[in-house]
Amino acid sequence: MTTLPVTERGNRTRAKLLEAAEVVFAKYGYSEASVVRLTEHAGVGQGTFYLYFASKLEIFEVLVEDLNRRVRHAMSEAASGSSNRLESERAGFRAFFEFTAQHPALYRVVREAEFVSPKSLRLHYSRIVSGYIEGLQEAQSHGEVGDIDPTVAAWALMGIGEMIGMRWVLWGDGEPSGDDADPTASGTSRVPEAVFEDMMRFIQRALSAPGER
């Protein structure tokens, strides 16, 4: 593990390398994303790369953690002013879909982590789920969520967001066909409002107490 930069210039250079990694890993995949490609995209020399990262694997793992931090921040910021759990879910999902549209690399990078760095994959999902579980437990204590295991609900909700985002944000609004059926496609779109509302009705029924469904 390399030492973090101590100067503002160093921080900017490291950030440029991470931005390049997001683009290059998404475009070429881990195996074809060489250090040469990373440094060329960042506009820095190869020697500079090794001042900030020990290897291609290290920058990949740092990128997974960085994307995870940013998407969690986007979701928590969006949901911070919500008055109940359903509002929180609505705001959080909107933020997640917006982040995915802006950073489609999130999908490919995280999926590749299953084979490149399984510990990074587990870290990505466990950090998201951990916050979800806490939020659901608090909502249960306020009577906003029915008698459901918060851990099961957290994983289920994360799965809903990931699959809806893949289908409508990454694949676009049309029916998947040919290259459009590729979940690593770089084209981005948005979740149609009708789809979003159907998803939220599904979530409301799943989380609410039996008498409220």
From TrEMBL:
Every copy of the HTH tetR-type domain together lies at 11-71
Please list the residue ranges the record marks as binding DNA. Answer: 34-53
Is DNA-binding found in the keyword set? yes
Record InterPro entries: DNA-bd_HTH_TetR-type_CS, Homeodomain-like_sf, HTH-type_Tx_Regulator, HTH_TetR, Tet_transcr_reg_TetR-rel_C_sf
Q: Determine if DNA-binding is one of this entry's keywords.
A: yes
- Name any one GO molecular function: DNA binding
Keywords carried by this UniProt record: DNA-binding
Q: What is this protein called?
A: AcrR family transcriptional regulator
**What organism is this sequence from?**
Alpinimonas psychrophila
